[in-house]
Design goal:
The complex is a heterodimer of chains A (about 110) and B (about 110). By secondary structure, chain A is mainly beta. Chain A has no helices and eleven strands. At the A-B interface, β4, β5, β9 and β10 of A face β5 and β10 of B.
């Protein structure tokens, strides 16, 4: 059974650009959550999607957005990139959101 | 909102000894407590979890205990092995949900040969 797949694994972007990250959940999982991991702030919850609807949201600015497709795949978008957005972005999938969450390997975003 | 504190931040133990990591949470509504292990270059891996209706759970060399009254929960690893070296995160979530997880700051565990 395939795990959570995140693409791309690495990205380098310039300040002011925008970026889109992709997450394919485990087959059958309908909940997808996104997290930002930095050395200073640790692991922080961004948002969760379930059945194409945002169900929970963390404390991040509106530059961070996401969406989920009918096949449960999810994308996360960050607009007007700042240096502080450099981080490992992790996606986690769960059957319904009320069972175990499994993480992908993450996308390492570097903003220069 | 929920806040999870984790101690210690680093832990070094002799191979074969036990390791204990402790966490506290602030919101009494939290009822799901997963533990994750993260190795270099990888995403967090769920190693064990516990729900608030259970006081203790064990899986081979790993055990987790939960004290709801004190809002404490702990991870115990016995007979540590070199492959246990990693960063460990405790976490808490509400509504039994794995979809909005609040993480502790992590413990870097090193196993000395």
């Amino acid at each position: 059974k395939a795990g959570v797949t995140q693409t791309p694994r690495y990205l380098i972007k310039t300040r002011g650009q925008q970026v889109t990250l992709s997450c394919s959940p485990i087959s059958g999982h309908r909940s997808v959550s996104w997290y930002q991991q930095t050395p200073g702030q640790g692991l922080q919850f961004l948002f969760e999607y379930f059945s194409e609807t945002q169900r929970n949201k963390g404390n991040f600015p509106g530059r961070f957005s996401g969406r989920q497709f009918s096949n449960s795949r999810s994308e996360m978008n960050v607009s007007t990139l700042e240096l502080g957005d450099s981080a490992l972005y992790l996606c986690a999938s769960s059957l319904q959101g009320d069972t175990e969450a499994f993480f992908g390997q993450g996308t390492r975003l570097t903003v220069v | 909102g929920e806040n999870v504190e984790q101690h210690p931040s680093t832990l070094s133990v002799q191979e074969g000894d036990s390791a204990v990591i402790k966490c506290t949470y602030s919101d009494s509504a939290s009822n799901y407590f997963p533990w994750y292990k993260q190795e270099l270059g990888k995403g967090p891996q769920l190693i064990i979890d516990i729900r608030s209706n259970v006081g203790e759970k064990k899986d081979q060399r790993i055990a987790v205990t939960l004290n709801k009254t004190a809002k404490h929960f702990s991870l115990h690893i016995t007979e540590t092995q070199p492959e246990d070296s990693a960063v460990y995160f405790c976490a808490a979530s509400m509504g039994g949900s794995a979809s909005k997880i609040i993480f502790g700051s992590g413990t870097r565990l090193s196993i000395r040969p």
